[in-house]
Design brief:
By secondary structure, this protein is mostly beta strands. Helices cover 4% and strands 41% of the residues. It is built from 1 helix and 18 strands. Strands 2, 4, 6, 7, 9, 12, 14, 15 and 17 form a 9-stranded parallel sheet that branches. The chain has a 7-stranded parallel sheet with strand order 1-3-5-8-13-16-18, with no helix packed on it. The longest helix has 6 residues, at 146-151.
Amino acid sequence: MVKIYPTAKIICDEMDIERANYIGDYVFIYLKRLVMGEGSQINAFASVTGGGELIMGRNVVVSYGARLITGTDQPVGRYMSDSAPEEERYVVRGTIFLDDNVFVGANAVISVNRRCPIIAIGRGTVIGAGAYIDRSIPEPNLVVTPMQRLRFRPRRIV
């Protein structure tokens, strides 16, 4: 059974959603293509934007408030706004691959960019809450922000 909350907004040219998937409250999706493997979910207040592609394997969790950005529009001229002439803008439409059993923590950001228009997150990778990812991550891995590393103090066992 696929559950999509009525408050979710989905603008997508092509969707391939398998069974047992979940798209939560106030999720915003604007993509060219969305693929969700069996048992995957996008939780409340997450957004997947940019007009590119998101391909999720099986049992992938995109947690609350996470941002997956599949496209960027970067000014390369003198203007720093979308009103810049087309020749002074660099538009990237990319792809984010989340392999099987990936967990994207709350308020984490995964963003394609000029140097890395295709981002692949390896099987079993856990991306910590609030992390910023702008490149591919091999499998399996644990990615946390510098702030999270500072808070963790291992205990000595005597």
